[in-house]
Amino acid sequence: MIGKKEYIDLVKETTPKSREVKTLILAFVIGGFICCIGEFIGDMLKLIIKDIGEVTTAQFTSCILIFIGSLLTGLGVYDKIGKVAGAGSIVPITGFANSVVSPAMEFNREGMILGVMSKMFVVAGPIIVSGVTASIAVGVVYFIIGLF
Predict the structure, then answer these.
(1) Dist. CA 3–CA 103, nearest whole Å
(2) I need a surface site. Which of 22, 68, 109, 148 has the fewest CB within 10 A?
(3) What is the tens place of the pLDDT at every residue in 68-100?
(4) Closest among 111, 113, 109, 101 to 76, alpha carbons compared
């Protein structure tokens, strides 16, 4: 029978070392780089299309980033970025595109309707429902506050 001190020493020896700092730095840098790409796309849109407004620029930029995220997922590149970046690749809108496309690609062999269409929102569906529910709740609270 081992004592408490021996047990603590054994746990310290066998516990893997944390790479938390490295993971956080990579997530911050790569997630920030993805956001910088979005800013670059928005700036290029403003240069190319002279009379484009801020809202339209944001809409086009979001669509382009979703397309890029979906394309990189389809090519198998986004998963490699995710292994290095961790949460840094999930937070931007490209991560949302990845969460929609990945399950769809996985079930592609089952056909368009039963495979792709039915599995497309397996991961993203609960997130969409949670977001819509939260926005409705916040809207109701603002409405009630506005009554007073």
Answers:
(1) 49
(2) 148
(3) 988 888 888 988 988 888 888 877 688 777 777
(4) 101
88 touches 29 (CB < 8 A) = yes
Taking the C-alpha atoms of residue 101 and residue 116, their distance in angstroms, rounded to an integer, is 9
- Dihedral in degrees, nearest 10, Cα atoms 32, 34, 40, 45: -140
Which has the higher per-residue pLDDT, 66 or 115? 66
* Side chain identity, residue 94: T
The H or E element containing residue 69 is helix 54-74
d(CA 112, CA 119): 10
Token representation of residue 130: 């949670």
Q: How far apart are the first and last CA of the chain?
A: 68
Full-model pTM: 0.65
Contacting residues for 114 by C-beta, under 8 A, at least 6 apart:
107
